[in-house]
Amino acid sequence: MDKRYARVVKAARMTMLPGAEQTKYLRAMISESEKKDLIEGGFEYGFEQGIEQGIAQGVAQGVAQSKAEIAKAMLSEGLKASVVSKCTGLSREELAAL
What we know:
Shape: rod-shaped
Helix content: over 70%
Strand content: under 5%
Mean pLDDT: 86
Radius of gyration: 29 Å
Number of strands: 0
Distance between the termini: 78 Å
Structural class: mainly alpha
């Protein structure tokens, strides 16, 4: 049998295996260096995602804190809560909690 044909047949048979057996088969087919590369790539991707999420959360918290500080200053200057709410986007409930 032609090597290419044999590989196609083998791959087709593998796709018919139940999930756990497919995983076991694929793990056996991957070399140790390939496993290491996949794991390192996964860690790098996870690390990058974590950094991006952390930055996004930090920016959101900074914006919220700035809005609160501005609202406090506006209220202390005697501006009506309805005006402060309109300018900052904070609800009246959020203003009352400041």
